[in-house]
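Hi all, long-time lurker, first post. I run a small reading group and we've been trying to get comfortable going from sequence to structure in the token notation. Rather than ask abstract questions, I figured I'd post a concrete chain and ask someone more experienced to write out its structure so we can walk through it together at our next meeting. Sequence below, copied exactly:
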Amino acid sequence: MIPKDCYLTVGDHIHISIKALPGASKTEFAGIKEGRLRVRIAAAPEDGRANAELAAFVSKSLGCPKRDVALLHGGEKSRLKTLAVPLAYRLQWEKIVQEVQD
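-- Answer (accepted) --
Happy to help. Here is the structure in token form:
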């Protein structure tokens, strides 16, 4: 069974609930807690660097272009964010979630 508490299918996109943890030594997925995927980010939360690193990491993890990863909610000041990625990457996304849960 795939836990779906950290993402939701909306139309032709997947909306991913994230808690960003900037300032880490490396960028990595760090589990799911309270309905959000936790992502450690190896960038400071300054001038949009952490958001850019988050989008780049998610796009690389899914194998999709960076332009396909959109920040829907949570700007530079918020650690709670929602990203949207095309539904075409659903299988890759579910594999990532399954690995994070294990």
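A couple of things your group might point at:
The helical segments are 49-62, 90-101.
The mean pLDDT is 89.
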